[in-house]
């Protein structure tokens, strides 16, 4: 019986094909007459009489699919082509990924891609480091980073030569040249003599070798005098080699800090000596001292401002008569500074007028005398006329020197405490007085 022939289908003569060699891992070839199933091609068969190119399908298929033989008859089925989608308006059509490219994922990459060096996923090479754009060439090497700030190093207070306490005869000790502090046989000296008799000199004096022989006392003049009055032959001392400037600073520091009673003229002379010694040293200071004014350095050593130090130094220009009045409390500090700027011959007339009128000039009067001296209008008559003028109420002061107050108060009393105690005692004294003494003169006349 003849085979039914479908119209339009050509009949080809088939030749027996040699068996294909078996490839390990490939599935067995399908039987003759069976239709090969291609992944994604399930469903009804495509229309007849159509030649299909399966090269693209085979290129994307795995090794197992590529090894499968074509169906009998030499014709291959083709996956039906999908209708091309029209691109949306306003958006460019998406380009299909090239063959063999892996579509990009959105969101986080998988762990395998994170662990791969360079950020590439499995099977991808690491990305080359991003190169920065070449900028303008810099001149010279980059400056090194600033060094960390080092803490200030502590100074070594020890001396190269060990100092020993030696007992020197009092006859070998000489006072310091131009010593500004007087050694007075007052109440304080009597107390010091009693202490030396009981237990000797507790703090050794500081001396330096003297060119003419013996030793010059740098600090310890009152201890040396107390030892003489106590009947001692020698006293403990520390011998130290010192320059003139070092000796001046040590002498003034010791007296300004440890003396209980210092006269204004003594303090003025000591501060001037300190100023000159520091000025001689120049910029030999260290650290923050470099560049500071000498007046400020002196002020720091004595707990005052540089301006106050300058005013004390002005007092050294007073004539001896006015210095004596100042130390005695008859000329206060501020008027004395003003008078010190007046020419010396006129200062002597001022001293005579103060003694004659028994009146201390106020700040306003001293300032007026200075202005008239600058204008060459000052003479003895003018000085008497200015000092005899009635003082303003705000300029009238009662001056009590520290030496006078020290007789009634202890050493630990401050000026404010002494003033408060004086005012309290005056209040008690006023309450004990008869009533008529507390009334004014005009009120008493009216009562009569």
Report on the architecture of this protein.
- The protein is mainly α.
- Among the domains are: 81 residues, Conserved hypothetical protein from pyrococcus furiosus pfu- 392566-001, ParB domain (Alpha-Beta Complex), CATH 3.90.1530.10; 53 residues; 77 residues, no CATH class; 31 residues, no CATH class.
- Helices cover 37% and strands 5% of the residues.
- A 5-stranded mixed β-sheet has the order 1-5-3-4-2.
- Helix 8 crosses helix 9.
- The longest helix has 18 residues.
- The chain is extended, with a radius of gyration of 57 Å.
- The N terminus and C terminus are likely disordered.
Helix and strand run: HHHEEHEEHEHHHHHHHHHHHH
The top level CATH class name of the domain at 163-243:
Alpha Beta
The CATH architecture term of the domain at 163-243 is Alpha-Beta Complex
Q: In angstroms, what separates the terminal alpha carbons?
A: 180 Å
Query: How much helix is in the residues?
Result: 25-40%
Number of helices: 17
Q: Compute the number of strand runs.
A: 5
CATH superfamily of the domain at 163-243: Conserved hypothetical protein from pyrococcus furiosus pfu- 392566-001, ParB domain
Poorly predicted runs of 5 or more residues = 1-13, 59-80, 113-126, 438-448
Radius of gyration: 57 Å
Largest sheet: 5 strands, mixed
Mean pLDDT: 74
Report the portion of residues in β strands: 5-15%
Strand order of the largest sheet: 1-5-3-4-2
């Amino acid at each position: 019986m003849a085979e039914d022939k479908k119209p339009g289908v050509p009949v080809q003569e088939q030749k027996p094909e040699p068996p294909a060699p078996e490839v390990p891992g490939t599935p067995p070839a399908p039987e003759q007459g069976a239709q090969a199933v291609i992944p994604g091609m399930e469903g009804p068969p495509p229309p007849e009489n159509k030649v299909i190119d399966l090269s693209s399908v085979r290129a994307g298929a795995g090794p197992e699919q590529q090894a499968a033989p074509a169906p009998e008859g030499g014709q291959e089925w083709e996956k039906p082509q999908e209708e091309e989608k029209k691109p949306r308006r306003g958006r460019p059509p998406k380009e299909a990924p090239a063959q063999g490219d892996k579509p990009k994922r959105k969101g986080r990459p998988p762990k395998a891609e994170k662990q791969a060096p360079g950020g590439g996923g499995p099977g991808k090479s690491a990305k080359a480091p991003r190169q920065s754009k070449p900028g303008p060439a810099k001149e010279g090497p980059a400056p090194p980073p600033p060094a960390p700030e080092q803490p200030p190093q502590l100074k070594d207070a020890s001396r190269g030569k060990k100092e020993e306490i030696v007992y020197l005869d009092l006859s070998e000790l000489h006072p310091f040249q131009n010593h500004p502090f007087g050694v007075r046989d007052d109440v304080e000296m009597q107390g010091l003599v009693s202490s030396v008799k009981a237990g000797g000199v507790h703090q050794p004096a500081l001396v330096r070798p003297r060119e003419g022989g013996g030793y010059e006392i740098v600090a310890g003049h009152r201890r040396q005098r107390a030892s003489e009055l106590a009947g001692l032959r020698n006293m403990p001392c520390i011998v130290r080699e010192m320059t003139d400037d070092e000796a001046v600073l040590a002498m003034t520091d010791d007296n300004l800090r440890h003396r209980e009673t210092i006269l204004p003229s003594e303090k003025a002379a000591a501060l001037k000596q300190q100023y000159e010694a520091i000025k001689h040293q120049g910029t030999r200071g260290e650290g923050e001292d470099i560049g500071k004014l000498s007046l400020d350095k002196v002020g720091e050593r004595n707990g005052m401002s540089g301006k106050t130090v300058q005013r004390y130094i002005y007092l050294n220009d007073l004539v001896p008569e006015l210095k004596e009045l100042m130390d005695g409390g008859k000329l206060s500090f501020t008027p004395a500074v003003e008078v010190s700027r007046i020419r010396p011959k006129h200062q002597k007339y001022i001293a005579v007028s103060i003694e004659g009128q028994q009146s201390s000039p106020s700040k306003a009067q001293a300032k007026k005398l200075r202005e008239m001296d600058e204008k060459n209008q000052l003479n003895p008559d003018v000085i008497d006329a200015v000092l005899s003028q009635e003082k303003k109420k705000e300029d009238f002061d009662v001056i009590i020197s520290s030496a006078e107050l020290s007789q009634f108060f202890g050493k630990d009393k401050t000026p404010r405490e002494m003033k408060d105690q004086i005012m309290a005692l005056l209040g008690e004294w006023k309450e004990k007085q008869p009533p008529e003494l507390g009334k004014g003169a005009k009120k008493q006349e009216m009562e009569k």
